[in-house]
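Wed. Picked up where I left off yesterday with GntR family transcriptional regulator. The coffee machine is broken again, so keeping this brief.
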Amino acid sequence: MSSLPVEPPSVTSPGAPPATLAAVRAGVPEHGRPPKYFQVKQKIDAVLDELGQGTPLPTEREFAERFGVSRMTVRQAIRELRLEGRVRRSGRSTVAAGPKMVQPLILASYTEGVRRQGRNPGRELVVFERIAADEALAAGLQVAVGAPVFHLERVLLADDERVGLESTYLSAERFPALAAEFDPRTSLYAYLHAAGVVFADADERIETVLASPREVQLVGTTPALPMLLLNRVTRDRDGRPVECVRSLYRGDRFSFTAHLTVEEPPGSRS
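Structure written out below (tokens, as returned):
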């Protein structure tokens, strides 16, 4: 039985990010017949490179006539471009989206990260309540089960665009004045820093999820849009947990970067 020929892998310059590999960009399967919608998607993607942010795209009918395909094929191509963050809805139109915001995985506030990219951060308060810690929260914050905990839920904004949803939990016994003193429209990290808290380290887990119906409504997205979920426990210099945070970011508007180092094996310095 003969096998299909396999082309050798593309060679790139040292240091090139994996996303720039030619094989990834081409997206051509081994049999050499990419789906028609994918070919249209590549052509529309090239059109997007010539459009400025917020510029309306040609209509589905115009694209269909230009590329000689059905409107259904165009619709599927645009749907994928929307999931990738290349286009977005604006009223009744589909427009070219700007570049994704790139957040480094460091101990810094959302406010700082957005401002570094020339965007204006903002927040809309959803919930600011006092609850009793369940077993999971008690373990994360190292408090007794049933201890009072502040729950702060806010919609995250960038230039007034809804891009995420964040829930933060803090011990009410450690921060008793939080409800009276903190303005939920501002940076919580700035408030905690002013209160004398010095962050030292955190454990964070990242995964992809689909938003719940409630989250879809709050963030203003669609149920099919992949979301990036970050769960974090942050500690101070004494090793005491300061906060437990659940952050949900739109996958079409955010990406995250991390600087990696080699961990020395145990006993390597002995």
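Quick read: Residues 18-96 form a domain with the Arc Repressor Mutant, subunit A fold (CATH 1.10.10.10).
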